[in-house]
Amino acid sequence: MELIKLKVREHNSKGSNATLITDKFIESCTKLDASIFESLIDEDQYFENKDKYEFLSFLKAQFDHAKKIGLDKTIVGYGSCGACQVGCRTHEFFGADGKIRFAYLINQKDGEVKDIFNCNASSGWFKK
How many folded domains does the chain comprise? Predict the structure, then answer.
């Protein structure tokens, strides 16, 4: 299980911009289009030793896989992390068939987006 952690531009991550970041990330995931979110990531931010473009490449690979199996969009739902951020709310993205395709935890504190994690232990992965 690989943890992917994203840090966003600090000046973009506070107040009303925190809502924008969250909304654009979710829109990017539901429309399977990484470019929607790209401008909000700082050029020189690193996370899990991955730079902006490595993270976007990972995100695009998830989206490409979803498209390869016939999805043109996903449906967002909510779950909770069962591993490294136990109990924290996750955003789960499902195909029309109801199967989870990927999940992310958007870590906010005091009205600021701190991190975005790919969550492979979100509760939706364990539903039958």
Answer: 1
Which domain range does residue 51 map to? 4-126
108 and 121 in contact (C-beta within 8 Å)? no
State residue 3's pLDDT score. Answer: 52
CATH number of the domain at 100, please.
3.10.450
Report the 10 Å Cβ neighbour count for 35.
Answer: 10
Gap between the Cα atoms of 76 and 84, Å rounded? 21
11 has a pLDDT exceeding 50:
no
Is 30's pLDDT higher than 70? yes
Segment holding 25, helix H or strand E: helix 16-31
